[in-house]
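quick one if you have a minute, typing this from the bus. theres a chain ive been looking at and ive put its sequence and its fold in token form underneath. please have a look and point out which stretches look like helix strand or loop to you. anything you notice is useful, everything is just below.

***
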Amino acid sequence: MGVKGLTSLLQHNSQIYQDIPFKDSKLVVDGRILASHLYFTADLDQNHGGEYQAYQAQVQAFFTALADCRIRPYVVMDRSLATSDRTTERVQRAHDAALTGRRTGILPILSRLVFDQTLSDMNVPLAKCIGEADCELAALASEWRCPVLSKDSDFFIFNLPAGLLHLDHFRWDAVSADSIPCKQYTTSRFCTVFNITPELLPVFASLAGNDDIDREVRWARFLPAGRQEETSWTAGLEGLLIWLTRFRTAEETLTAAMALPGMSQQALTEVRRAMLEYRLPSSSLRGFFSEGTVPSLPPEMTGVPHWVRARMVRGDLGSNILNVLKHRNLSDGIQVERSDLQSSSLTSQPIRQVYYRLLLGQGGDGVMEVDRVSQDIVGIEVQPVVQGAAQTLRLDSLPQADPAVRLQVCLETLGVKEETLEGVPAPLRLPVAVTCYWLRMASPEPDLMLLKALLKVMVQGELNRREGSDTDWQGNTIHTIQPLDCDVAHSFNQWQACLKNASELNLLLCMPLPKPHFAWILASHLYLTANLDQNHGGEYQAYQAQVQAFFRALADCGIRPYVVMDRSLATSDRTTDRVQRAHDAALTGRRTGILPILIRAMLVCPWSAAVTAVTTFSPLASVLLFSL
């Protein structure tokens, strides 16, 4: 669905919109469009993993503005991520962003998790549709006689009593007199401007949306003399609208269309089928929002347990579950990385295999994962994995299963023992377990600099959350157009993919590990932009401050560290490779991972009575320096 070029046509006919102050009303919100719109219009980082805390603040500010104007939002989102989201064009844009540093409109992979969690924290009503949300949004708005907030061109066609509030003109950040200035679109004004009957709008959209018909008929030939050779999409739409003024009913129009050169019976059948998509059904979500009634599933999904259905509609089971259950396919999004590197989602594939086993049971076909290989989009069949404690669980009885068994499945999947997480603050247990998994599974092996940056920002983020403090970077990022450190970015992308898939597995297991506060632990642009000298003898004072800050943060969280170090420097540490890297650093000024010589001595200095030093082995000193 969707009418290409229609938004541009309306921009050239702005009299169709009516300026109104909006307040004291229900509002049906296109959640997928809003989530992207708020991120991109806030001028946030796209290339360094995302600016999730600033994004959370933006989402909070938006819904706070609605509440201040007594607007009651009901957010509806698509359940599934279409496979078209992994197009070759998107892969190329992600590749270009990685090489040049330019922002190319790639939404960070965990932004939807942050969006959903923020709405939950603010008690904003949210429902996720079984399929396409457009018809459900329109049906709900029609029954409630309130507007839809979106910028999807399909809402220019649906006959909505209160019309569409176009998101690009919804000035929620300029509240005046307890109302939001905005522009309202109604089909009646559209039909008045273009002199067609409302009944013809679905015909218009269906004819305009068929590329084959447009090529054969060339609607622009119905434009006034002097414009008939124009080739733009808007010219074609204008020509089609002029042709439609000759008719009053849909049947009369379709009969006349058959007489046009190049029109076939097959094309007309496709048009009739497309027109049906604009017929509004009864809303399946009205009862959900008002009474908590869970909508029914399609016939092919009748075997899905009620508890799964209920949590799926509430948005409590992640974004992938419907595609796996209904279509046995999955597309997990594109991240900014060089296309000659392997897809970052491969690292978390073993997590998804356990997820598939819990959802689909034993036997049957695998799940077709849509992913990239180099710059090509391919389908890869991935089989569910049955192992360990997961073999004892059934989907229909998961909520009643022993919590210890559900935790065991989660930890076995991540390769972490329960005692490893002892002393770790509850909101950080899943991210720490994911980090352990990522250290084992990532390819190539993660840089110690990134590991320490992850630990530092996770701990500091949790401290900030507990204290209710703001952060210096929130919404104030200075964007520089320069290429990424592609290896570090690729490694961090793998970590984000692992966290996303592990979070969805944890949700399916009814949260044996507490749900993380994503926005607070995901200050990822800090992970990828931290910096300290390695090539000019070392920045020992800054390093000392970093060591002190690290252990204070642990102490503040009640974590008791025991530092283990090797007494000697192995001869293998003086490899030809290290000599070459030191030489390159001296010539070029680039940091090549050479640890300044006095760092080990500084680390064992007594900086805190809370730290016990034992003489065996630990990479902590390297971690602390290279993460800065």
User: Anything to note?
Assistant: Residues 202 and 275 are 5 Å apart (CA to CA). The chain is about 45% helix and 10% strand.
